Amino acid sequence: MSSSLLHPPSHLPPTTALQLSQQAPKIIKEAPGAISTSALQSLFAASETPELWTVYENLLLSCLRTGDDESAHQCLGRLINRFGDDNERIMALIGLLKEADAPDNATLEVVLKEYETILNKDPTNTPIAKRRVALLRSLGRVSDAVVALIALLDFSPTDGEAWAELSDMYFSQGLYSQAIFALEEVLVLQPNAWNIHARLGELLLMAAKGSPSPDASRQLSEALKRFSRSVELCDDYLRGYYGLKLITTHLLSSPQSKSKQSDNDNLALPDTTTLRQLDELATAKLGEITRRFSAGEKGWQGYDETEITAAKTLIEKDSSVTIR
Amino acid sequence: MTWISKATTTFGLLLLAHACYSAHEHSALQAHRAASLASLTASQAGVATSLPIDIAIETVVATFIVVLGLVLGTAQLRPIRWRVWAGQIEREGEEAFKDADGEIARDYIGNPFKLLESRPGFVDIRKQRQEFADWVKSQ
Protein backbone atom coordinates (compact mmCIF):
# COMPACT_ATOMS: atom_id res chain seq x y z
CA MET A 1 0.00 0.00 0.00
CA SER A 2 1.51 3.28 -1.06
CA SER A 3 2.31 5.66 1.71
CA SER A 4 1.02 8.67 -0.17
CA LEU A 5 -2.47 7.30 0.37
CA LEU A 6 -2.00 8.07 4.05
CA HIS A 7 -1.80 11.80 3.33
CA PRO A 8 -4.35 14.16 1.82
CA PRO A 9 -3.77 14.07 -1.92
CA SER A 10 -4.86 17.52 -3.09
CA HIS A 11 -1.34 18.85 -3.69
CA LEU A 12 -0.18 15.89 -5.75
CA PRO A 13 0.52 16.29 -9.46
CA PRO A 14 -2.09 14.87 -11.90
CA THR A 15 0.09 11.88 -12.80
CA THR A 16 0.24 10.72 -9.20
CA ALA A 17 -3.47 11.31 -8.73
CA LEU A 18 -4.23 9.22 -11.78
CA GLN A 19 -1.91 6.48 -10.56
CA LEU A 20 -3.57 6.47 -7.14
CA SER A 21 -7.09 6.33 -8.50
CA GLN A 22 -6.12 3.53 -10.85
CA GLN A 23 -5.18 1.47 -7.82
CA ALA A 24 -8.63 2.07 -6.36
CA PRO A 25 -10.52 -1.01 -7.65
CA LYS A 26 -7.68 -3.24 -6.46
CA ILE A 27 -7.51 -1.68 -3.01
CA ILE A 28 -11.28 -1.76 -2.62
CA LYS A 29 -11.27 -5.44 -3.55
CA GLU A 30 -8.44 -6.38 -1.21
CA ALA A 31 -9.16 -4.24 1.83
CA PRO A 32 -11.90 -5.32 4.21
CA GLY A 33 -15.14 -3.56 3.50
CA ALA A 34 -16.47 -3.62 7.01
CA ILE A 35 -15.04 -4.50 10.38
CA SER A 36 -17.26 -6.72 12.45
CA THR A 37 -17.94 -5.59 15.98
CA SER A 38 -18.53 -9.10 17.28
CA ALA A 39 -15.70 -10.30 19.50
CA LEU A 40 -15.72 -13.82 18.10
CA GLN A 41 -15.34 -12.71 14.50
CA SER A 42 -12.64 -10.22 15.34
CA LEU A 43 -10.48 -13.15 16.44
CA PHE A 44 -10.36 -14.45 12.88
CA ALA A 45 -10.75 -11.38 10.71
CA ALA A 46 -8.05 -8.87 9.95
CA SER A 47 -7.62 -6.32 12.70
CA GLU A 48 -8.89 -2.80 12.20
CA THR A 49 -6.26 -0.11 11.73
CA PRO A 50 -6.77 3.65 11.63
CA GLU A 51 -4.78 3.67 8.39
CA LEU A 52 -7.51 1.73 6.62
CA TRP A 53 -10.03 4.53 6.99
CA THR A 54 -7.47 7.21 6.14
CA VAL A 55 -6.73 5.29 2.96
CA TYR A 56 -10.43 5.16 2.08
CA GLU A 57 -10.81 8.87 2.64
CA ASN A 58 -7.80 9.82 0.54
CA LEU A 59 -8.73 7.32 -2.13
CA LEU A 60 -12.16 8.94 -2.25
CA LEU A 61 -10.56 12.35 -2.85
CA SER A 62 -8.24 11.02 -5.55
CA CYS A 63 -11.06 9.20 -7.33
CA LEU A 64 -13.29 12.27 -7.26
CA ARG A 65 -10.49 14.30 -8.77
CA THR A 66 -9.91 11.87 -11.61
CA GLY A 67 -13.61 11.35 -12.25
CA ASP A 68 -13.80 7.72 -11.08
CA ASP A 69 -17.15 8.26 -9.37
CA GLU A 70 -17.95 4.57 -8.99
CA SER A 71 -14.94 3.86 -6.78
CA ALA A 72 -15.56 7.09 -4.89
CA HIS A 73 -19.09 5.98 -4.07
CA GLN A 74 -17.80 2.61 -2.92
CA CYS A 75 -15.25 4.24 -0.61
CA LEU A 76 -17.88 6.55 0.81
CA GLY A 77 -20.27 3.65 1.30
CA ARG A 78 -17.74 1.82 3.42
CA LEU A 79 -16.94 4.91 5.44
CA ILE A 80 -20.65 5.50 6.11
CA ASN A 81 -20.98 1.85 7.02
CA ARG A 82 -18.29 2.23 9.65
CA PHE A 83 -18.89 5.69 11.09
CA GLY A 84 -22.53 6.36 10.29
CA ASP A 85 -23.79 9.29 8.27
CA ASP A 86 -24.12 11.61 11.25
CA ASN A 87 -20.37 11.79 11.79
CA GLU A 88 -19.19 15.34 11.09
CA ARG A 89 -16.31 14.33 8.91
CA ILE A 90 -18.42 11.86 6.94
CA MET A 91 -21.09 14.53 6.47
CA ALA A 92 -18.47 16.74 4.86
CA LEU A 93 -17.39 13.89 2.57
CA ILE A 94 -21.01 13.24 1.55
CA GLY A 95 -21.35 16.92 0.72
CA LEU A 96 -18.12 16.82 -1.24
CA LEU A 97 -19.42 13.95 -3.35
CA LYS A 98 -22.65 15.84 -4.02
CA GLU A 99 -20.68 18.89 -5.08
CA ALA A 100 -18.61 16.82 -7.45
CA ASP A 101 -21.70 15.17 -8.93
CA ALA A 102 -23.63 18.40 -9.35
CA PRO A 103 -24.23 19.12 -13.05
CA ASP A 104 -25.15 22.80 -12.73
CA ASN A 105 -25.22 25.74 -10.34
CA ALA A 106 -28.84 25.11 -9.31
CA THR A 107 -27.85 21.75 -7.81
CA LEU A 108 -24.96 23.42 -6.03
CA GLU A 109 -27.36 25.91 -4.50
CA VAL A 110 -29.36 22.97 -3.16
CA VAL A 111 -26.18 21.52 -1.63
CA LEU A 112 -25.46 24.91 -0.12
CA LYS A 113 -28.96 24.98 1.40
CA GLU A 114 -28.31 21.53 2.89
CA TYR A 115 -25.11 22.80 4.48
CA GLU A 116 -27.00 25.71 5.95
CA THR A 117 -29.67 23.41 7.37
CA ILE A 118 -27.00 21.30 9.04
CA LEU A 119 -25.27 24.40 10.40
CA ASN A 120 -28.55 25.73 11.77
CA LYS A 121 -28.88 22.58 13.82
CA ASP A 122 -25.25 22.51 14.92
CA PRO A 123 -23.38 25.76 14.28
CA THR A 124 -20.05 24.30 15.43
CA ASN A 125 -19.87 21.54 12.84
CA THR A 126 -16.41 22.56 11.61
CA PRO A 127 -16.03 20.24 8.57
CA ILE A 128 -19.41 21.32 7.18
CA ALA A 129 -18.65 24.98 7.89
CA LYS A 130 -15.43 24.59 5.94
CA ARG A 131 -17.23 22.91 3.06
CA ARG A 132 -19.73 25.76 2.97
CA VAL A 133 -16.91 28.30 2.73
CA ALA A 134 -15.22 26.28 -0.01
CA LEU A 135 -18.48 25.96 -1.97
CA LEU A 136 -19.22 29.68 -1.70
CA ARG A 137 -15.74 30.44 -2.95
CA SER A 138 -16.10 27.92 -5.74
CA LEU A 139 -19.35 29.62 -6.80
CA GLY A 140 -17.48 32.90 -7.04
CA ARG A 141 -19.17 34.51 -4.04
CA VAL A 142 -15.90 35.32 -2.32
CA SER A 143 -17.21 38.07 -0.04
CA ASP A 144 -19.89 35.69 1.32
CA ALA A 145 -17.18 33.09 1.77
CA VAL A 146 -15.06 35.54 3.75
CA VAL A 147 -18.00 36.36 6.03
CA ALA A 148 -18.70 32.66 6.58
CA LEU A 149 -15.05 31.97 7.26
CA ILE A 150 -14.79 34.79 9.79
CA ALA A 151 -17.83 33.32 11.55
CA LEU A 152 -16.03 29.97 11.62
CA LEU A 153 -12.90 31.60 13.04
CA ASP A 154 -15.04 33.29 15.68
CA PHE A 155 -15.86 30.00 17.34
CA SER A 156 -12.61 28.26 16.43
CA PRO A 157 -9.79 30.81 16.45
CA THR A 158 -7.02 28.24 16.77
CA ASP A 159 -7.65 26.65 13.37
CA GLY A 160 -4.49 27.32 11.37
CA GLU A 161 -5.95 25.89 8.20
CA ALA A 162 -8.88 28.30 8.31
CA TRP A 163 -6.61 31.31 8.87
CA ALA A 164 -4.46 30.21 5.94
CA GLU A 165 -7.56 29.90 3.75
CA LEU A 166 -8.71 33.36 4.84
CA SER A 167 -5.31 34.76 3.92
CA ASP A 168 -5.50 33.13 0.51
CA MET A 169 -8.99 34.54 -0.10
CA TYR A 170 -7.93 38.06 0.86
CA PHE A 171 -4.91 37.67 -1.35
CA SER A 172 -7.08 36.67 -4.30
CA GLN A 173 -9.05 39.88 -3.72
CA GLY A 174 -5.86 41.94 -3.66
CA LEU A 175 -6.27 42.88 0.00
CA TYR A 176 -2.64 42.47 0.98
CA SER A 177 -2.65 43.87 4.49
CA GLN A 178 -5.59 41.65 5.52
CA ALA A 179 -3.92 38.63 3.92
CA ILE A 180 -0.71 39.40 5.78
CA PHE A 181 -2.59 39.73 9.06
CA ALA A 182 -4.30 36.34 8.60
CA LEU A 183 -1.00 34.68 7.76
CA GLU A 184 0.59 36.20 10.86
CA GLU A 185 -2.18 34.51 12.86
CA VAL A 186 -1.15 31.20 11.29
CA LEU A 187 2.41 31.86 12.43
CA VAL A 188 1.21 32.54 15.95
CA LEU A 189 -0.36 29.08 15.91
CA GLN A 190 2.46 27.34 14.04
CA PRO A 191 5.64 29.31 14.67
CA ASN A 192 7.89 26.66 13.16
CA ALA A 193 6.15 26.39 9.80
CA TRP A 194 9.00 27.27 7.46
CA ASN A 195 6.82 27.32 4.36
CA ILE A 196 4.41 29.78 5.95
CA HIS A 197 7.31 32.08 6.86
CA ALA A 198 8.37 31.99 3.21
CA ARG A 199 4.78 32.55 2.07
CA LEU A 200 4.43 35.57 4.34
CA GLY A 201 7.70 36.92 2.98
CA GLU A 202 6.34 36.53 -0.56
CA LEU A 203 3.11 38.34 0.36
CA LEU A 204 5.02 41.19 2.00
CA LEU A 205 7.30 41.52 -1.01
CA MET A 206 4.32 41.61 -3.39
CA ALA A 207 2.57 44.16 -1.20
CA ALA A 208 5.66 46.38 -1.04
CA LYS A 209 6.26 46.19 -4.78
CA GLY A 210 2.62 46.83 -5.58
CA SER A 211 2.20 50.01 -3.60
CA PRO A 212 4.82 52.75 -3.33
CA SER A 213 3.41 53.73 0.03
CA PRO A 214 5.52 54.95 2.96
CA ASP A 215 4.82 51.53 4.41
CA ALA A 216 6.80 49.81 1.68
CA SER A 217 10.23 49.98 3.29
CA ARG A 218 8.86 48.54 6.54
CA GLN A 219 7.24 45.72 4.59
CA LEU A 220 10.45 45.07 2.69
CA SER A 221 12.51 44.80 5.84
CA GLU A 222 9.91 42.50 7.38
CA ALA A 223 9.88 40.34 4.26
CA LEU A 224 13.66 40.12 4.50
CA LYS A 225 13.30 38.89 8.07
CA ARG A 226 10.63 36.37 7.14
CA PHE A 227 12.74 34.83 4.39
CA SER A 228 15.76 34.73 6.70
CA ARG A 229 13.66 32.98 9.33
CA SER A 230 12.44 30.38 6.84
CA VAL A 231 15.98 29.43 5.82
CA GLU A 232 16.98 29.43 9.47
CA LEU A 233 14.24 26.89 10.20
CA CYS A 234 15.07 24.71 7.23
CA ASP A 235 18.48 23.98 5.72
CA ASP A 236 18.74 24.31 1.94
CA TYR A 237 15.18 25.59 1.58
CA LEU A 238 14.93 26.50 -2.08
CA ARG A 239 11.83 28.68 -1.75
CA GLY A 240 13.32 30.63 1.16
CA TYR A 241 16.62 31.30 -0.61
CA TYR A 242 14.78 32.24 -3.78
CA GLY A 243 12.81 34.86 -1.87
CA LEU A 244 15.92 36.04 -0.06
CA LYS A 245 17.70 36.49 -3.37
CA LEU A 246 14.74 38.38 -4.83
CA ILE A 247 14.50 40.79 -1.95
CA THR A 248 18.21 41.47 -1.55
CA THR A 249 18.46 42.17 -5.29
CA HIS A 250 15.50 44.50 -5.02
CA LEU A 251 16.90 46.33 -2.00
CA LEU A 252 20.42 46.64 -3.43
CA SER A 253 19.20 47.96 -6.77
CA SER A 254 16.89 50.58 -5.29
CA PRO A 255 18.32 51.89 -2.01
CA GLN A 256 15.62 52.88 0.44
CA SER A 257 15.80 56.28 2.09
CA LYS A 258 17.31 55.93 5.51
CA SER A 259 15.58 58.88 7.15
CA LYS A 260 12.16 57.26 7.34
CA GLN A 261 13.34 54.22 9.22
CA SER A 262 14.91 56.03 12.11
CA ASP A 263 11.60 56.37 13.95
CA ASN A 264 10.93 52.63 14.16
CA ASP A 265 14.35 51.16 14.78
CA ASN A 266 12.87 47.73 15.43
CA LEU A 267 12.21 47.14 11.77
CA ALA A 268 15.04 49.16 10.28
CA LEU A 269 16.66 47.73 7.20
CA PRO A 270 20.11 46.25 7.71
CA ASP A 271 22.99 48.17 6.17
CA THR A 272 24.33 47.52 2.70
CA THR A 273 27.17 45.27 3.86
CA THR A 274 24.77 42.87 5.53
CA LEU A 275 22.48 42.94 2.51
CA ARG A 276 25.39 42.16 0.23
CA GLN A 277 26.42 39.25 2.43
CA LEU A 278 22.87 37.89 2.44
CA ASP A 279 22.74 38.27 -1.32
CA GLU A 280 25.99 36.35 -1.72
CA LEU A 281 24.76 33.63 0.62
CA ALA A 282 21.49 33.22 -1.27
CA THR A 283 23.28 33.14 -4.63
CA ALA A 284 25.74 30.54 -3.38
CA LYS A 285 23.00 28.36 -1.90
CA LEU A 286 20.77 28.59 -4.98
CA GLY A 287 23.75 27.73 -7.16
CA GLU A 288 24.62 24.74 -5.01
CA ILE A 289 21.05 23.43 -4.95
CA THR A 290 20.49 23.74 -8.70
CA ARG A 291 23.90 22.26 -9.49
CA ARG A 292 23.47 19.26 -7.23
CA PHE A 293 19.89 18.64 -8.35
CA SER A 294 20.85 18.79 -12.02
CA ALA A 295 23.83 16.51 -11.46
CA GLY A 296 21.41 13.94 -10.06
CA GLU A 297 23.26 13.70 -6.77
CA LYS A 298 21.74 11.31 -4.30
CA GLY A 299 19.95 13.04 -1.44
CA TRP A 300 19.21 16.20 -3.44
CA GLN A 301 16.30 14.95 -5.52
CA GLY A 302 13.43 16.10 -3.31
CA TYR A 303 13.02 19.46 -5.02
CA ASP A 304 10.38 20.40 -7.52
CA GLU A 305 11.59 20.47 -11.12
CA THR A 306 9.85 23.74 -11.97
CA GLU A 307 11.18 25.47 -8.87
CA ILE A 308 14.73 24.49 -9.84
CA THR A 309 14.19 25.91 -13.33
CA ALA A 310 12.92 29.16 -11.86
CA ALA A 311 15.93 29.38 -9.55
CA LYS A 312 18.28 28.82 -12.50
CA THR A 313 16.61 31.60 -14.45
CA LEU A 314 16.95 33.93 -11.49
CA ILE A 315 20.67 33.22 -11.09
CA GLU A 316 21.33 33.64 -14.80
CA LYS A 317 19.47 36.95 -14.87
CA ASP A 318 21.43 38.12 -11.86
CA SER A 319 24.82 37.15 -13.29
CA SER A 320 24.06 38.83 -16.63
CA VAL A 321 23.25 42.04 -14.77
CA THR A 322 26.53 41.84 -12.87
CA ILE A 323 28.54 41.36 -16.07
CA ARG A 324 26.93 44.38 -17.65
CA MET B 1 25.81 -3.10 6.93
CA THR B 2 23.10 -5.42 8.15
CA TRP B 3 25.01 -8.64 7.56
CA ILE B 4 27.91 -7.33 9.67
CA SER B 5 25.56 -6.67 12.57
CA LYS B 6 23.85 -10.03 12.14
CA ALA B 7 27.18 -11.90 12.00
CA THR B 8 28.46 -10.05 15.08
CA THR B 9 25.29 -10.79 17.03
CA THR B 10 25.37 -14.48 16.07
CA PHE B 11 29.04 -14.74 17.03
CA GLY B 12 28.32 -13.09 20.37
CA LEU B 13 25.39 -15.43 21.05
CA LEU B 14 27.58 -18.45 20.23
CA LEU B 15 30.23 -17.22 22.66
CA LEU B 16 27.58 -16.66 25.31
CA ALA B 17 26.16 -20.17 24.80
CA HIS B 18 29.68 -21.56 25.01
CA ALA B 19 30.31 -19.73 28.27
CA CYS B 20 27.05 -21.05 29.75
CA TYR B 21 27.90 -24.58 28.68
CA SER B 22 31.38 -24.27 30.21
CA ALA B 23 29.91 -23.02 33.47
CA HIS B 24 27.47 -25.91 33.51
CA GLU B 25 30.22 -28.44 32.81
CA HIS B 26 32.38 -26.91 35.50
CA SER B 27 29.66 -27.16 38.13
CA ALA B 28 28.82 -30.73 37.08
CA LEU B 29 32.50 -31.66 37.38
CA GLN B 30 32.71 -30.03 40.78
CA ALA B 31 29.67 -31.93 42.04
CA HIS B 32 31.06 -35.21 40.74
CA ARG B 33 34.45 -34.60 42.33
CA ALA B 34 32.88 -33.61 45.62
CA ALA B 35 30.76 -36.76 45.61
CA SER B 36 33.73 -39.03 44.90
CA LEU B 37 35.86 -37.26 47.49
CA ALA B 38 33.07 -37.55 50.06
CA SER B 39 32.97 -41.30 49.57
CA LEU B 40 36.70 -41.51 50.28
CA THR B 41 37.08 -39.09 53.16
CA ALA B 42 34.04 -37.60 54.80
CA SER B 43 36.03 -34.81 56.46
CA GLN B 44 37.24 -33.22 53.15
CA ALA B 45 33.74 -32.33 51.83
CA GLY B 46 32.51 -28.80 51.00
CA VAL B 47 35.48 -27.35 49.11
CA ALA B 48 33.50 -24.79 47.10
CA THR B 49 35.67 -23.54 44.27
CA SER B 50 34.64 -20.44 42.32
CA LEU B 51 34.15 -20.32 38.55
CA PRO B 52 37.43 -20.15 36.58
CA ILE B 53 38.30 -16.61 35.48
CA ASP B 54 38.29 -17.46 31.76
CA ILE B 55 34.61 -18.45 31.82
CA ALA B 56 33.70 -15.19 33.54
CA ILE B 57 35.70 -13.17 31.02
CA GLU B 58 34.12 -15.04 28.13
CA THR B 59 30.62 -14.25 29.44
CA VAL B 60 31.34 -10.54 29.77
CA VAL B 61 33.03 -10.32 26.36
CA ALA B 62 30.18 -12.26 24.73
CA THR B 63 27.61 -9.88 26.21
CA PHE B 64 29.48 -6.87 24.86
CA ILE B 65 29.78 -8.43 21.43
CA VAL B 66 26.01 -9.11 21.33
CA VAL B 67 25.32 -5.52 22.36
CA LEU B 68 27.72 -4.24 19.71
CA GLY B 69 26.00 -6.33 17.06
CA LEU B 70 22.55 -5.03 18.04
CA VAL B 71 23.75 -1.43 18.08
CA LEU B 72 25.30 -1.82 14.63
CA GLY B 73 21.98 -3.13 13.35
CA THR B 74 19.80 -0.20 14.41
CA ALA B 75 18.15 1.90 11.75
CA GLN B 76 19.69 5.25 10.95
CA LEU B 77 18.74 7.83 13.53
CA ARG B 78 16.62 10.81 12.57
CA PRO B 79 18.11 14.27 12.96
CA ILE B 80 17.36 15.98 16.27
CA ARG B 81 17.86 19.58 15.21
CA TRP B 82 14.81 21.12 13.61
CA ARG B 83 16.52 22.79 10.67
CA VAL B 84 18.48 19.65 9.77
CA TRP B 85 15.32 17.57 9.91
CA ALA B 86 13.36 20.11 7.87
CA GLY B 87 16.21 20.44 5.41
CA GLN B 88 16.28 16.70 4.94
CA ILE B 89 12.58 16.70 4.08
CA GLU B 90 13.02 19.47 1.54
CA ARG B 91 16.24 18.17 0.03
CA GLU B 92 15.61 14.45 -0.15
CA GLY B 93 11.84 14.13 -0.13
CA GLU B 94 10.58 10.62 0.41
CA GLU B 95 13.96 9.06 -0.34
CA ALA B 96 15.31 9.95 3.10
CA PHE B 97 12.68 7.89 4.84
CA LYS B 98 12.92 4.67 2.88
CA ASP B 99 14.23 1.64 4.70
CA ALA B 100 16.34 -1.15 3.24
CA ASP B 101 13.39 -2.69 1.38
CA GLY B 102 12.47 0.53 -0.39
CA GLU B 103 9.31 0.95 1.67
CA ILE B 104 8.61 4.41 2.99
CA ALA B 105 8.49 4.51 6.77
CA ARG B 106 5.00 4.42 8.23
CA ASP B 107 5.44 7.58 10.22
CA TYR B 108 6.70 9.60 7.27
CA ILE B 109 4.61 12.72 6.96
CA GLY B 110 6.77 14.92 4.77
CA ASN B 111 6.42 18.58 5.54
CA PRO B 112 3.69 18.64 8.22
CA PHE B 113 2.94 22.27 7.42
CA LYS B 114 2.14 21.57 3.79
CA LEU B 115 -1.46 21.12 4.95
CA LEU B 116 -1.58 24.85 5.67
CA GLU B 117 -1.04 25.47 1.98
CA SER B 118 -2.98 22.60 0.42
CA ARG B 119 -5.85 22.90 2.97
CA PRO B 120 -7.74 19.63 2.43
CA GLY B 121 -10.70 20.90 4.47
CA PHE B 122 -11.39 23.62 1.92
CA VAL B 123 -10.74 21.59 -1.21
CA ASP B 124 -12.52 22.92 -4.30
CA ILE B 125 -13.34 19.59 -5.85
CA ARG B 126 -15.01 20.94 -8.97
CA LYS B 127 -11.98 23.04 -9.86
CA GLN B 128 -9.72 20.04 -9.29
CA ARG B 129 -11.87 17.88 -11.54
CA GLN B 130 -11.80 20.54 -14.23
CA GLU B 131 -8.02 20.88 -13.98
CA PHE B 132 -7.58 17.15 -14.16
CA ALA B 133 -9.85 16.88 -17.21
CA ASP B 134 -7.83 19.64 -18.90
CA TRP B 135 -4.63 17.83 -18.07
CA VAL B 136 -5.96 14.59 -19.57
CA LYS B 137 -6.91 16.46 -22.76
CA SER B 138 -3.47 18.00 -23.04
CA GLN B 139 -1.77 14.62 -22.79
From TrEMBL, chain A:
Keywords: Endoplasmic reticulum, Membrane, Repeat, TPR repeat. It comes from the Eukaryota. GO terms for cellular component: EMC complex. Signal peptide: none annotated. InterPro entries: EMC2-like (IPR039856), TPR-like_helical_dom_sf (IPR011990), TPR_EMC2 (IPR055217), TPR_rpt (IPR019734). Residues 113-199 form the EMC2 TPR-like domain. It is found in: Endoplasmic reticulum membrane. TPR repeats lie at residues 160-193. Belongs to the EMC2 family. Component of the ER membrane protein complex (EMC). Part of the endoplasmic reticulum membrane protein complex (EMC) that enables the energy-independent insertion into endoplasmic reticulum membranes of newly synthesized membrane proteins. This is ER membrane protein complex subunit 2. It comes from Neoarthrinium moseri.
UniProtKB/TrEMBL annotation, chain B:
Pfam families: MMgT. Residues 1-22 form the signal peptide. One of its GO terms (cellular component) is EMC complex. Keywords: Membrane, Signal, Transmembrane, Transmembrane helix. InterPro entries: EMC_subunit (IPR053279), MMgT (IPR018937). The chain crosses the membrane at residues 55-75. GO terms for biological process: protein folding in endoplasmic reticulum. It is found in: Endomembrane system. It is a multi-pass membrane protein. PANTHER family: ER MEMBRANE PROTEIN COMPLEX SUBUNIT 5 (PTHR28144). Belongs to the membrane magnesium transporter (TC 1.A.67) family. This is Transmembrane protein 32 protein. It comes from Neoarthrinium moseri.
